[in-house]
Inverse folding.
C-alpha cells in the first residue's frame, strides 16, 4: 500500500507539473498552511491560534471598538511570532513559478507578508497585511515593523486610533482587490490551491468560481478538505515538499 501511495503521489505531482508548466495563466490561492513550515501557526490546526484565542472575540470590528487594546495585544503577539519566521521552500517555489509561466496571479488569505518577503511580485493580499496599519479617523495607511508599542497606537497626522490593516470577520474585502482576484480566477487555466481549509468566505468559493469558468483546479493540503471533492486533482502532502517538486 505504502509503495502505491508514494507512486500515486509521484504520479499526481508529475501530472500537476506537466499541466501547470504548460499553462498560459496560472493562479495560486494560499492559506495559512503554506506558512506552517515557516513556523507560523495555522488557524484551525491542532496548534491553531484560534484554539488559544476566539477569532470571533478578537478578529472582528466589534471587538476592536469594545477593546482596541486587547485586540492590539493579540496582533502584537502575532507580529512578534511572525517577525522571526522566514519564507519556506513552498513560498520560494511560487516565486520561481511566477517567472516560469506567461501570466501569474498569487491570491493569499495570509496576512504574514511571507510571499512578499520571498520575492513574489503579483500578490493579492485579500485579507490585508499584519505589518500595515490604517487610521480609523483619516484613513492614513502605512507599513510599520514594530513588535513593541503603546497600544492602541495613534495616528501621527490626526491623532486617530490606528488599527491593523487586515479584514476582520464581518468586514467586506476591498472591492478592487476582490474584483482583481475574481477576474484572475475567470482567466485562469489552472488554479493551484495550497494550504487552506476552505472554510472562510469568499476565498472558500474561489475554487468553484475558477472551475465553473473552465480552470483545472489542483489542491495541495496535508489532508482532505470540505472542498476537495470539487477539485480536479488533490495532492496530499506538505506544501514545502510538494511545491518544489511541481515547479522544479
Ligand atoms: C465577507 C485576517 C461580506 C484577520 C481573516 C458566506 C457563508 C458563510 C459565512 C460567511 C459568508 N460570507 C461571509 C461570511 C462570514 C465570514 C466567514 O467566512 N466566516 C467563516 C468562519 C464561516 N467571512 C467574512 O466575514 C469575510 N467577509 O465575506 O464580507 C460579508 C460580511 C458579513 C456577512 C456576509 C458577507 C471576511 C473574512 C476574512 C477574515 N479574516 N484573516 C487575521 O488574520 O487576524 S480569516 C483567517 O482565516 C486568515 O486570513 C486565514 O488565512 C483564513 C482562512 O484560514 P486558512 O488560511 O484556511 O487556515 P486554516 O488554519 O483554516 O487551514 C490551514 C490549512 O492548511 C488546513 O487545511 C491544513 O490541513 C493545511 N496545512 C497545514 N500545514 C500544511 C498544510 N497544507 C500544506 N502543507 C502544510 N505544511
Ligand atoms: Zn489619522
Amino acid at each position: 500500500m505504502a509503495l502505491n501511495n508514494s507512486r500515486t503521489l509521484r504520479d499526481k505531482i508529475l501530472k500537476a507539473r506537466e499541466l501547470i508548466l504548460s499553462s498560459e495563466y496560472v493562479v495560486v490561492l494560499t492559506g495559512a498552511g503554506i506558512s506552517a513550515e515557516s513556523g507560523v501557526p495555522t488557524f484551525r490546526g491542532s496548534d491553531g491560534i484560534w484554539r488559544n484565542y476566539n477569532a470571533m472575540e478578537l478578529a472582528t470590528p466589534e471587538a476592536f471598538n469594545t477593546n482596541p487594546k486587547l485586540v492590539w495585544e493579540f496582533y502584537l503577539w502575532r507580529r512578534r511570532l511572525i517577525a522571526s519566521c522566514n519564507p519556506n521552500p513552498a513560498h520560494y517555489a511560487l516565486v520561481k513559478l511566477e517567472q516560469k509561466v506567461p501570466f501569474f496571479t498569487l491570491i493569499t488569505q495570509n496576512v504574514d507578508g511571507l510571499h512578499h518577503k520571498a520575492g513574489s511580485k503579483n500578490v493579492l493580499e485579500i485579507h490585508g497585511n499584519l505589518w500595515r496599519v490604517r487610521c480609523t479617523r483619516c484613513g492614513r495607511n502605512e507599513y510599520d515593523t514594530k513588535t513593541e508599542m503603546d497600544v492602541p497606537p495613534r495616528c501621527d497626522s490626526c491623532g486617530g486610533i490606528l488599527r491593523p490593516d487586515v479584514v476582520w470577520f464581518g468586514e467586506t474585502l476591498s472591492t478592487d482587490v476582490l474584483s482583481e482576484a475574481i477576474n484572475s480566477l475567470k482567466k485562469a487555466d489552472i488554479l493551484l490551491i495550497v494550504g487552506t481549509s476552505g472554510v472562510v468566505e469568499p476565498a472558500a468559493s474561489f475554487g468553484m468560481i475558477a472551475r465553473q469558468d473552465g480552470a483545472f483546479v489542483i489542491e495541495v493540503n496535508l489532508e482532505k478538505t470540505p472542498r476537495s471533492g470539487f477539485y480536479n486533482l488533490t495532492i496530499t502532502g506538505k506544501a514545502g515538499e510538494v511545491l518544489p517538486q511541481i515547479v522544479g
About this structure: Strands lie at 25-30, 103-108, 123-125, 128-135, 141-143, 162-166, 190-194, 216-221, 233-236.
